[in-house]
């Protein structure tokens, strides 16, 4: 069974500080993935967000120019390649046969829907590689658009028929209210996707144009994902991602699609 793991930009970078990597957190999360991969040989696709690399660059030029012009596209793509280079470098050091695949080379957006040719993912996975991909800028019929790491994670899950999708994020799961705004928010341990959406509001981080927890979970329903177990996992707790990979006993939420 294939597992798709999405590392949130908020967990692997300091979102409010320009191009600032949380190297210790990223290394620990990759170590947990590598341990799982080396122990079980399970096929894994790794997706990561933009955090203070992609999101910061693209929101700056959106503010300045109003749309993604060629320089903005180039700068955003460059920022994401830098971030993905860090992720890949550490992953390879830890023994994962990791390879980056740039969404801009395989996906386009047309009339608001994303079309990807995922053959290269299928082929590399079948030969034991661990593809690393990410939120990116892609060609669209309206110019250039952002394809979020979340959307990509869902598309990979649907098209490659993954059994599990794991979102690693900066909060300990899905709560009945935004836990950053309300300390009495309660963690939802397990629920059906359509039942939790009512609780969710937008991300606090303004530069994140892709919708925070609500956008993340809504996207799976919008894309018609069915029959998938989705885990939303707190990424700052040591060993938690490993636990979520091997079992259902972890700090976080299980959301059924
Ligand atoms: N009900 C909720 N439960 C959990 N998180 C929520 C909720 N409502 C809003 N959020 C926000 O969504 C954020 C996670 O989404 P986001 O910032 O996009 O993270 P990522 O970088 O993992 O994509 C949390 O940090 C939190 O502030
Ligand atoms: Mg996000």
Approximate helicity band: 40-55%
What letter string, H or E per element, gives the SSE order?
Answer: EHHEHHEHEEHEEEHEEHHEHE
- The residue-averaged pLDDT reads 94
- Looking at the structure, the CATH topology is Carbamate kinase
Question: Any ligands, ions or cofactors bound here, and which?
Answer: adenosine-5'-diphosphate, magnesium ion
Question: Architecture, according to CATH?
Answer: 3-Layer(aba) Sandwich
The helix-and-strand class reads alpha/beta
What is the number of helices?
10
Q: Tell me the span between the first and last alpha carbons.
A: 17 Å
Largest sheet: 8 strands, mixed
The radius of gyration over CA amounts to 17 Å
CATH C-level name = Alpha Beta
Unreliable sequence segments = none
Q: Give the strand line-up of the largest sheet.
A: 3-6-2-1-9-11-12-10
């Amino acid at each position: 069974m294939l597992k798709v793991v999405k590392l949130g930009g908020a967990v692997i970078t300091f979102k409010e500080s320009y191009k600032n990597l949380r190297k210790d957190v990223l290394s620990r999360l990759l170590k947990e993935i590598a341990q799982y991969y080396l122990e079980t040989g399970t096929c894994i696709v790794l997706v990561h967000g933009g955090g203070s690399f992609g999101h910061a660059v693209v929101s700056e030029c959106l503010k300045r120019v109003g749309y993604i012009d060629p320089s903005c596209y180039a700068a955003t793509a460059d920022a994401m390649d830098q971030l993905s280079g860090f992720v890949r470098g550490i992953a390879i050091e830890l023994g994962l046969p990791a390879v980056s695949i740039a969404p801009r080379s395989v996906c386009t957006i047309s009339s608001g829907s994303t079309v990807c040719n995922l053959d290269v993912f299928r082929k590399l996975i079948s030969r034991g590689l661990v593809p690393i991909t990410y939120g990116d800028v892609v060609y669209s019929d309206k110019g250039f658009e952002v394809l979020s790491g979340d959307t990509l994670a869902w598309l990979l899950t649907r098209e490659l028929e993954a059994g599990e999708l794991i979102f690693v994020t900066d909060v300990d799961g899905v709560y009945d209210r935004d836990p950053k705004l309300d300390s009495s928010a309660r963690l939802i341990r397990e629920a059906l996707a359509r039942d939790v959406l009512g609780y969710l509001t937008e991300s606090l981080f303004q530069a994140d144009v892709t919708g925070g927890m609500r956008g993340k979970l809504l996207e799976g329903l919008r894309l018609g994902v069915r029959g998938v177990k989705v885990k939303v996992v707190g990424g700052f707790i040591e060993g938690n991602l490993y636990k979520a990979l091997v079992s259902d006993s972890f700090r976080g939420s299980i959301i059924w699609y």
